[in-house]
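User: Can you write out an input/output pair for a complex, sequences first and structure second?

Assistant: Here is one pair. Inputs:
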Amino acid sequence: MTRSDVQYDVELHRVVKRFGTLIAVDHLNLAVARGQFLTLLGPSGCGKTTTLRMIGGFEYPDAGEIVIRGQPMGRTPPYRRPTSMVFQNYALFPHLTVKENIAYGLRERGVDRQTIERRVREMLDLVSLSGLGDRYPRQLSGGQQQRVALARSLVIEPAVLLLDEPLGALDLKLRQQMQLELKRIQLRVGITFIYVTHDQEEAMTMSDVIAVMNHGRIEQLGPPEELFERPKTRFVAEFLGAANVLPATVCAADSRGACLEIAGRSITVHESGLQAGDTVFLVLRPHWLRLTAPDSHESVWRGTVIDRVYRGPVMTMRVALESETVLNVDIPSGTVPSPQLGDTVGIALLPDHLCVVRE
Amino acid sequence: MAVQVHPEPARTSRLLSPSQILVFPAILLLVSFLVLPLLLIAVYSFYSTDPVTGLMRPEGTLEQYQRIISSPIYRRVFFRSLEIAATSTSIALLLAYPVGYTLGRFVPRRYQPAALLLILVPFWTSYIVRTYGWIGFLQNGGFLDSVLSLLLPGRVQLDLLYTRAAVLIGFIHVYMPLIILPIFAVTRSLDTRLLEASADLGAPPWRTFWRVTLPLTLPGIVAGGSLFFIAVFGSFVTPQLLGGTGDLMIGNLIADQFGEAFNWPFGAALAIVITLVVLLGLVVLFRFARLEGFNETAVGQ
């Protein structure tokens, strides 16, 4: 694929940011295609917010280059960048009304009064706040303030919209509703979104591409389903969704597959690039496993049910294997008869639903 | 869905809660040392003076107020006081704002108490001592002149002492912390993300200052400015020590009525007039500055 096939709105080349002796962002490379919804996902302190702030121009990299729409940014200040940021706690101007907040950027650009009126009205419509234009931010609910912040950033038609955990302060229900709405708005305006969050569910709901970050680096980058189904590292496997991660030893390997020894059993995986003697990890999502009769020929392991956790649509059974490893297995809630505490059960794998990662 | 929240019924029939009782000593102090004396002054202002003995006659007359209105001297001194107070407040605001702002925004929090102390220690030093200090500094052949003669060839004389400039310098020096402190307080609680948001939306630093910083620190400017203005407007020591005969202020007139002329009713009437003027000014100012509006979010966080 040549460069001209995809237009990148934002490119980061070996970007480094240090705070004192701490390396917040460590030689980070990233390219965000035009119109993409990309999420930087990671635990607190992984460098995701610092990365976002560098793209917005609030921090400058110690090394490396940030390129936006083909222009190297260097030390360009925020007010000369084609980006706009939705801040974590919205940062609405408390002394201005909703309308004045939204008009702020347009006034800086010298847009005439009538155009401002019209654009502000359109934006209020887009974020479903028509009729609240004359209120002050403190007279709005958290969700409404959130929409104003979004409108204020979108109205200046940035090339890239940066969102720093914008839904963090909202309650669950509202957050889920806003996730869908953000996605709808992004599709409608067609602007590149770079979104920062530590909430994996939020990331999966909205993103075209997720970059999982850890220790200032990107561990894995890809569409949500790829990260979930085929994590490349143990960190990614454990950060996105529930996972049983079992240490395994490669007992034999050739170009087509390998034989792994896990918790007292050996299983064959279609995974190339492994070498006999390697220590790897087998990732098994709880819903990739099935309970069987203990003596079923399908079962790979046998164990005892030590806990049952009801989670609505599924019931998670905690099964202690003979090797003392504990596996979580999800079964549909209505299953009759469902295994009871102390029952001995067999555990079977669904075909092709497993994944081998390194540390 | 509307949910009716029932207020908790009052648990006891006690009239006052402990916190309300704790306010009493302060109220008592205010009433006995501010409200009562002020009322007394108000009463005196309606008395007349016996032209022969000079003693007060409690008889309820408006003659003191008529004297203030009819005589151009008092009007002139009144407007001069306004002018001196307004000029020195404006200059002090320009000088103190950067100090308070820097202190609140750029000085690291752990150094702020030390920096504040540097500003407050001189403030705790006697007003008179500091004002006398300026005499030595400004007088002919004083410190300022000596330094200037060293730097510039020939003999330099600024003749600053006993001028309006000296009065302004004295006021600004003595009362500047009254402005620095409120500016410091509002700046400290200024949410820097608002400044980032402004830059993000395309405003260069000076535009951000004009559109965000200034309006959000306005409560500090109004508070500091009015404290300073009031302090200067009623002053009489500084003009007496540093000013010339053309710099006497309304405070001097009042002090003279009580101290030298022994015309208490007239002094009281003058005092009531400036108190009312200042109060009226404050009401207008606080209305105009919309201080009730956003300050709970701007300052309260």
